[in-house]
Write the structure tokens for this entry.
Amino acid sequence: MSGRRAAGARSTAGDVRLRAVRLIAFRGANSVAANEAGAILDATEVLMHELLGRNGLETGDLVSCLFTLTPDLNAEFPAVAARRMGLSRVPLMCAQEIAVPGSMTGVIRVMIHAYSDDRREPVHVYLGETAALRQDLHGAQ
């Protein structure tokens, strides 16, 4: 299988027009002010809203989300924020980043797998201090 599928879009006449879609990975990160549940949830919610909004994604497009946190963040699971946003039918997983000496701390990262228009290029989103991680990306702001 090629990793592509067709999604139907109904016209007003009732016929179905197919558009090509493919499975795409969308990346993003946000900085967290403190190792507190509220700070982790707020940063995650902002990150998810930005990623979904900038890429025109809806809940039904999502296949899965993988969240990671730097080792200094352990007060809450980022998936809790995603569930509160209505992603209750999307498989979510949380993991800890590798503790690389000198790496940025206080960071939540996410990789979203979603079906999107075949012609659309993913917009990766890096917010707050994490914009320094991927200055090569136009969406890193």
